[in-house]
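Here is an idea for our session: we take a single protein and study its fold together. To get us started, please write out a protein record for me. Start from the sequence, derive the backbone structure tokens from it, and show both lines together. Go ahead whenever you are ready, and we will take it from there:
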Amino acid sequence: MKQLSQASNTADIDVGKPLPLPGTEAYESLPQFPQRSPLPFRRTIRRYELQQIVPLAETTIYELERRGEFPRRFNLTPRCVVWDLAEVEAWVEERKQAPRDQTSKPDVHLRKTRPVRAGSSEA
């Protein structure tokens, strides 16, 4: 009996016809796409996905988070941290819209250590 009820839901889809184009009303009404739910779908990303979107070092991202200048990570489990993809994308868009002349360069006099050149040795 259950098979009959499931078949009736998909009976209005003609197998020989091409699917409607995405973004059209017919496409949105297809049964495999759920109707708008009261809770929006939020996607989270892990560190390796974040690094593909935001090519910054882990320590830079951590410092930006600490200062409140980057979306905060949160724990799904004790060993799994994720970021909200919508927040990261909004941060990237905000950075794209920011005027170029307001980007601040680091003050080298505030460094705690001096960078060491590879291969240089003082004798």
